[in-house]
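Chapter summary example.
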Amino acid sequence: MRKLLILATILFFNSLTFAQNSIKGKWLTEDKEGIVEIYIENGKYFGKLIWLKKPNDDKGNPLTDSQNPNPKLNLRPLLNLVIISDMHLEINEWGGGTIYDPETGKSYRCKLWLSDNNTLNVRGYIGILYETEKWVRVK
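The structure predicted for these 139 residues follows.
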């Protein structure tokens, strides 16, 4: 009986560790225009743009955060821009943070959850309205 209890405890903590780290990695956005890398920093989850299908404008200059309402941030490059911030694990999903849309310069409340190990649902909220995208894991 004691061995069974020890085995059950080990399996439980292993599944918690898997769940906590399962969204870490690289994700292709639904429109296939970018790849976001999700990582952990200080116990929270963040995501940054690490690849863009079109990283430069028509003149060959790197795309910048030109739609940001803060003029001081308009010239920062989109590559390596943190767009998901301060997410934490809440049972079977990640929440409590925000997602930033560089196309509009707006931030939204966000929730993330997995459909399976290779499909991440990304939901942004404006009040009670929301939009959900499906991102695919990049290996």
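To summarize the output: Residues 4-20 have pLDDT under 50 and may be disordered.
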